[in-house]
Write the structure tokens for this entry.
Amino acid sequence: MNLSSCRVSFVGMDALEPARAEVMAWLPRLGSALDRATGVHVFIEAISQKRKEQLLRVRIDFSFPDGILEILHDDPKNAAHDDVFVAIRNAFRAARLQLELFKIQPDAVPPPVARQLPV
């Protein structure tokens, strides 16, 4: 997968270039599991704005020719955090585990996931 096919969106917050750079640094760490990916969209979302410190949640959508694999916040390793770098790290660790779980190989098809973040 080409890194230029990765999009990073910020929801409920201003765009942070250091966070965007951190996402791009994590992508190569996913290894060959992304060889078939046609794109990646990372959502960094601000939640719990009533708290003193803002909590952040990261969702990663991997596009494959046969479907989309979403790594959501409901993984215990991918909870909301007040540090954007911790949130990104945990989301990518959860993604790596999920990709390994599905054993995505060049001839495998990831199962489509159609879940949305709760509002």
Notes: Confidence is low (pLDDT under 50) at residues 114-119. The chain has one domain: 3-101.
